[in-house]
Amino acid sequence: MSYDSLTLNIDAKIAHIQLNCPDTLNTMTPAFWRELPEVVQHIDREAAARVIVLSSTGKHFCAGMDLSVFTGGALTSKQELGRKHENLRRTVLQLQEALSQLEKVRMPVLAAIQGGCIGGAVDMVTACDSRYCTEDAFFSIEETKLGMTADVGTLQRLPHLIPQGLVRELAYTGRRMYADEAKQAGLINRVYPDQATMLNDVMDIAAQIAARSPLAVTGCKEMINYTRDHSVADSLNYMAAWQSGMFQPETDMMETFMAKAEKREPDFEELNKMTSIFD
């Protein structure tokens, strides 16, 4: 499949999604908002990979929302005011859902960030499982500078990743948070001298994930996401329910033991493709 705003390459059970509009700083155009959820859902639906790496091209990772998104559709249409605002609400929900696909997909998503990660790009990377960046990277909740409140996920997810006081400072001021501070705060796992070194290492991390049982890995993602939004007691109860159905020691665990005894890499069955009852 070909896309206007990104490219997709799948190799060795790793899906590499790369934003591919460097001349416009990989801004989030209408095509991006259509294509990103489409490609993520395709990977999930087809069980096409075991892990996803999200990166970009050019000097900057992503400069945020493209102006065309602000100047079209529900924002400028001549409608009765109540209906116009109801339409705007649904537009924001659609944008939120597009980025939430990174969180909902069964496979872990690793973001590799260089240069600027601005506005909507912060919304995007906070929906990923892990983040890595170059020394020249910076993060900015740019919406405040534009006279609006970030509305596609940053203010909901970032407080679960870094201290609330820092989130508030960044949101209220719109200032840039550079790589070293992002690493110290816990937003970033590792900082690299350049993009090539970063991508090489992130691909190695992705390969380590891809070598594990995909059912075990998706169980980890499911549990960590659930625990973030629920109490410890509720999360433990859900863990027990999940394990009672998904834990099959005679399959993946036995394959691990056999592979170790036979001095080979384990060969795990892929996750099932997602099918409809109407197929």
From TrEMBL:
<protein>
    <submittedName>
        <fullName>Crotonase/enoyl-CoA hydratase family protein</fullName>
    </submittedName>
</protein>
<feature type="coiled-coil region">
    <location>
        <begin position="78"/>
        <end position="105"/>
    </location>
</feature>
<dbReference type="InterPro" id="IPR014748">
    <property type="entry name" value="Enoyl-CoA_hydra_C"/>
</dbReference>
<keyword id="KW-0276">Fatty acid metabolism</keyword>
<dbReference type="InterPro" id="IPR029045">
    <property type="entry name" value="ClpP/crotonase-like_dom_sf"/>
</dbReference>
<keyword id="KW-0576">Peroxisome</keyword>
<comment type="similarity">
    <text>Belongs to the enoyl-CoA hydratase/isomerase family.</text>
</comment>
<keyword id="KW-0413">Isomerase</keyword>
<keyword id="KW-0175">Coiled coil</keyword>
<keyword id="KW-0007">Acetylation</keyword>
<dbReference type="GO" id="GO:0006631">
    <property type="term" value="P:fatty acid metabolic process"/>
</dbReference>
<dbReference type="GO" id="GO:0016853">
    <property type="term" value="F:isomerase activity"/>
</dbReference>
<dbReference type="Pfam" id="PF00378">
    <property type="entry name" value="ECH_1"/>
</dbReference>
<comment type="pathway">
    <text>Lipid metabolism; fatty acid beta-oxidation.</text>
</comment>
<dbReference type="GO" id="GO:0005737">
    <property type="term" value="C:cytoplasm"/>
</dbReference>
<keyword id="KW-0443">Lipid metabolism</keyword>
<dbReference type="InterPro" id="IPR045002">
    <property type="entry name" value="Ech1-like"/>
</dbReference>
<dbReference type="InterPro" id="IPR001753">
    <property type="entry name" value="Enoyl-CoA_hydra/iso"/>
</dbReference>
